[in-house]
Specification:
This protein is mostly helical. The chain has one domain: Orthogonal Bundle (Arp2/3 complex 21 kDa subunit ARPC3), CATH 1.10.1760. Helix content is 65%, strand content 7%. It has 8 helices and 4 strands. The radius of gyration is 20 Å and the shape is globular. About 2% of the residues have low confidence.
Length: 246
């Protein structure tokens, strides 16, 4: 990618229109919502050789992909564009939680017998929903910030170091916030169990990032070549609340 223009965030080069940005943002928000709606409510089990049955939250299969896409957004388009996507995802999560609450609370028709099943699927515990939104918001911003800063430090070299490094930190923040907020003090959740589950899930998510590194390289290479830009956040305001102008 050394033949691409190295744009500084905030310059005219970074403000150019992009062909694929909207599609990447749509993929980011879609995976985020679906992993929370479809994956969050199911505990799956795999019978592993020598280990035996292993239970895990099904959402872990797909939620880490949102971090991979977050890495791609920051690496290709810069922190400011990634910030817009994070806020879009956060707003979508808030609306999804609100819509679920309203729809579940509506009185069911007398001839409709699916209320109990509907509540089981969509009637999420408010504490868990709040924990999920806080953890996503903080983890994604930390992930994007670390990757953007590491890109400048490394001069754009060793992409693997910043995709994995940013995930280690970002997912660490995500897990450190979600599990205590969602489960600490809840019935059946001792402090030791909360810590154990948080560390286990963090390790699994980071492992996913490592395994998907070749895919990340291909997507980043494709987008940089097609968009014709390589943004470096040397003058970026990294506040999550800064107005996005690029």
């Amino acid at each position: 990618m050394d033949d691409l223009p190295h744009s500084t965030a905030g310059t005219a080069g970074a403000a150019r229109p992009f062909r694929y940005f909207d599609l990447v943002m749509a993929a980011f928000v879609t995976i985020l919502l679906l992993s929370n709606v479809i994956g969050a409510g199911k505990v799956a089990v795999l019978d592993l050789p020598t280990i035996g049955p292993w239970e895990f939250g099904a959402g872990i299969l797909f939620f880490p992909i949102s971090y991979v896409i977050g890495d791609v957004l920051t690496e290709v388009y810069g922190y400011a564009k990634a910030r817009r996507c994070i806020w879009a995802g956060f707003a979508a999560l808030v609306f999804m939680a609100f819509m679920a609450m309203v729809v579940v609370a509506l009185p069911p028709a007398a001839n409709w017998g699916g209320q109990q099943a509907y509540e089981q699927v969509f009637g999420q515990v408010p504490r868990i929903v709040l924990a999920s939104m806080i953890a996503f918001w903080a983890g994604e911003f930390v992930n994007s910030y670390v990757l953007a800063r590491m890109k400048v430090w490394t001069g754009g070299k060793a992409l693997w170091s910043r995709t994995i490094g940013s995930t280690v930190v970002g997912q660490g923040v995500d897990s450190a916030l979600f599990y205590p907020i969602a489960f600490l003090g809840a019935a059946g959740w001792s402090p030791q169990l909360v810590i154990t589950v948080a560390l286990t899930q963090w390790g699994l998510k980071v492992t996913w990032e490592v395994l998907l590194t070749p895919v990340t390289y291909k997507v980043v290479g494709f987008l940089k070549a097609r968009e014709g830009v390589d943004v470096f956040d040397t003058t970026t305001d990294f506040s999550p609340f800064a107005r996005t102008t690029t």
